[in-house]
Amino acid sequence: MRFFTICLLLLSSISFQAHSSTSTSEDIDSQLQSLKKEIMQLNRQLFILEEELLYPSSTQLAVYLSVDVGKYFTVDNVELKIDGKTVTHYLYTAREQKALSRGGVQRLYVGNVHSGEHQLTAVFNGIGPNQRPLQRAASINFNKAKEVKNIEFLIRDDEDKQQAQFLAKEW
Amino acid sequence: MPCRLLVPRLSLVLILLCWSTLASAEEATSFKDLDYGVAFFDLYQERYYSSAVNLGISLQQQKLRHHKEEAELLLGSMLLYYGMHDDAEALFTRHTQLQQSPVSDRAWFYMAKLRYQRGLHDAGLKALLNIQGQLPDELERERYRLQAMLLMAQERFDLAAEVSRQTQSPDDLFAQYNLAVALKKSKKTKESYRTLYRLISLEAETPEAEMLQHKARIILAQIHLEYGNTENAIALLLKIPFDGVFADQALITLAWTYYQHGESASALAPLRLLKERNSTDIQAKEAWLLEGYIQEHANAQHEAKKSYNNAITHYQREINKLDEVIDSLGDGRFLDQLLPQLHGVSQGWGWEEHLDLPKESGPYIAVILSRDHFFEALKNLHDLRYLNDQLSTWQSDMPSYQHMLKLRQTRYNEFLPLLALVKGNKHYESLIRQHQQLTQQLNEIDQQEAIYQLLDEKAIKQLDRLSQIETTLEKLPKGDLYDDYQQRYQHLKGLLMWELSASFKPRSWQRRKELRAQQQLLDSAAEKRKNLTKTKLTTPQMFAEYEAQINDMGYQIETLSQRIDQLYTLQEEDLLEQAADALQQYRNQLMLYRDQAYYRVAYIKDSALNTRQVQAVE
Hints:
heterodimer, A: alpha+beta, Immunoglobulin-like, 30% helix, 43% strand, B: 618 residues, Serine Threonine Protein Phosphatase 5, Tetratricopeptide repeat
């Protein structure tokens, strides 16, 4: 008859009952959660401190890039110029291109500029319609005051013209 | 990795993927806060941790005015992914308690998910009941799947089957499988049977789906076996690869099925295969015992006794090896091989798929890993390693922060002489005085309506010419010509005066406007001077605060590192305890099998003795 037991075990998969060391585990879990929280908070503080030290709001300029659909242009790289001087040259990975085309917004550049009038130019290199290499630029004049200046470059599909538009706007 | 572990982890990743789907369904440019879009840029690249950190910063800095609720929910789901259940729960709870939160339904969904993970099945179901409307497509499907799983966890299989039936999609293999299991558990075997057959007839597009189909085949074979349809059971089991994940279960069921079908010789083949596989699966271990059992019932007592003796030897050897492995857990070799692999990988899940398991514990590592809790403990160690690595990086970054601060201080010191120069420059005060004088003058002119004031160049020239004419006239002899010139002069003078009088107010207004513009410039200069003075006064204080902040962070890092070390040791001990416990339970099971084999050998011997005695008596 003992074999019936074995057979029953065969038909219903055997699983060991987890040992009830739950109190230790719960304690560890709770401590770990608390550590994670504090470390995430510390991470935020460090990020803010770094930004405050390197880019005070009175001089901070943040440049963003977003793509609306991206059917007519796939950005390969972008060169950013402030008052004609190149400040960054960014090369995109396929993953980043995909993230942009899905609607993600990239914080392309953070830097410092003096207060007053400036010109910001982005030169985009990429693939246009019919897989042809394409270079386009967008510019914006802005006045830097004591608040953080946020500027977004937007590459938008223009269905009527069957091409991409390159726009810039202040936030 | 045990298949059942895939489900909760996949569901966590799915939650985050759902976010991706939800967001991309909207217009790409619909982000009204740049920082929210930035969080998605990270999320789409599966950089969940940086997305969570940035989102937390943006929320803290109140940069997400338009997407606050959505952002908090997203942050909550990412915290859930990183095992920060308490913080996630706090965020979700807040939204479930808000009267008109636009995300309350989703918050309830995540609460249910969280409670399911914590084993709070009743509370999970209650959370689902609070959902008022329809969730976005992906989540709506997930909602009913979750409801079915919660019901199954409560052993309310009828209801679970009902929910699964109503909501399952015919091409969703996992949903079909859950439905079949719920139906079988609620004794609706025929329906379960039909569902399972439908499931195995679908095309498996992923290795996971293929595994699920094999699992379904085993259940189907068991149903056939219950109803005595051994041929169908055999046909199903033969479709399962004998070198795959379900090989042990398939082989043992096949052996049993052959035996039921009266084919004892055929039943021995899968058992021998199983023995050769030398798997640590406890079901596979039964093969040693079952071989003897089948032979015994086929009246091959001699072979049966031999098989039972082989089983005893095998089990004893395994028990001895297990004792060694249990001892080896204590000397650190097990963890030495396992833990270095957790170094330098990000938090969350995914790392476990690439884990190279320690050879020290031989094949028994599978026994240890079969416990869900062991993986949780391993994940905790992994997370602690990650956190420690992160803290080490920050610790080494601290001098950079000091350097940044020094740089700012240097720039400030360079700026001080410039500030002194600005403060010492009297030009500003003289400009203020000039402006005040001009304003005073204009007021007087306005009061006196002095039309000869505030003249432009043209009017001044005209006045000069009139004056010259008057001088010339004075030199002319009196007479008719003089009278005529005098009359014309008076006429012109009258005209000019009228013109100057008429244009007086616009001229005055224009001057006032110019003075106002100057006043604005002076105000702006005053503001800048004020700011400069304020900067001069507050900057040293600010530097001191930054310095204190950097020092405090350094101290925090040190303290956190110590706490991580302590927790790491605690978790290591817990992990080893669990491993030892799993092995011990496995050992006990083997001892049970060994004793059963001893019993059968004794029984056969007794039977043989009895038979001989009966024969002798006869």
